Amino acid sequence: MTMKVLCVGHAIKEVMTAGECLDAFLAGAGTAGVDVSGKFLVSDGGDGFMEAYESNRQCTRHTVACTGPLGDAIEADFLMDEDKNTAIIESAQACGLALVEPQRRNVMISGTAGLADLIAAAKAAGAQKILIGLGGSATCDGGVGLLWRLAELTGNCLPCDNEYRIALDMSELSSPDIPNIKEWLGDVEITACVDVDNPLVGDRGAARTFAAQKGAGPDEVEQLEALMGDWASRVERNAGRELRDIPGSGAAGGLGFALAAIGAELEAGGASFCKLIGLEEQLSTHSIVVTAEGKFDSTSLAGKAPWQVATMARTKGAQSVIFCGAAEQDAVSAAKGRGVDVKEFGKLLPAAERKEKSAALLADSFAQYLQASKSLSA
After folding, report:
1. CA 145 – CA 151 distance, rounded (Å)
2. How far lies 147's CA from each of 57, 75, 101, in Å?
3. CA 267, 137, 88, 142 torsion: positive or negative?
4. What per-residue confidence (pLDDT) applies to 351?
5. Residue 134 and residue 256 in contact, taking contact as beta carbons nearer than 8 Å
6. In the structure, what pLDDT confidence band is assigned to residue 362 with cuts at 50, 70 and 90?
7. What would the mean pLDDT of 153-176 be, rounded to a whole number?
């Protein structure tokens, strides 16, 4: 029986873009002598969100001067899908971890004002809908930078002397005027694609779950947790509703919370993106579907794009495989119980060599998988 293989590229944070991941799959298929019958790029809102969208839809790219996570003047892009009158924004373009060199990373003095600059530019370009991918951030500021920059843009707030606000400002600032920001947005609809379902605060919240990954020490994590709780109370009073427990409000260091405060809908990014590009309709025609992730762990099973692709493929009867740099065995066992194979390709690779060698290792691992599959079907 001829194998019909669908390769779905997905970004691996700070290692490979979604396109590079797809190229590695195609190289592995070539080595194994297998023709690939389909290929896509996907994202769940994190790194590669715009790249994946642009690969599936005709868009125009716009470049905007905005503020980076440490207050630097940077340029960031957003997409306009004119047919849908929709702007596509990747929050990591303005406040992503990749924008900050490892030696400069300091989550306590990082902010999210740049995302407000992108939203304003999209609104000025005439977008009636704005789709924002949340993930890969260098920040854990509860969206304080985003909300106060939006308040400034409405013209009803004095500009900040430092031009951007940071996580530590959650201790000093009252809530901006949320109803006024919503009035300024008017009929513009905002949807945020989140790659996690964590709330803003608590043991699964933004600070205790993700801040350490962005360089925060134990004391800083607890300081951020306390700051976020107080900040959330002020914003919720101003917005007139509770927001901190909305699934995904803890995404991107609390950007999910801030966007929900101004009326954005938070959606599970993996499912939303797959539906957006019509991936499910393609799956039933393939016998093997493969995708990739950096680390496969318990959070992967909560609806991230690779897991969404894999489980959808499984329901269509395809062999479903997630290739990952490293994996937690409990998560691998859980995936196996759902009929999804997880293959590690870079478990022993030192961090300093991941960017250089991961693509070749992924290609080789995929080639070996295909060769084994051909032998079994012979």
Report:
1. 10
2. 30, 20, 25
3. positive
4. 77
5. yes
6. very high
7. 76
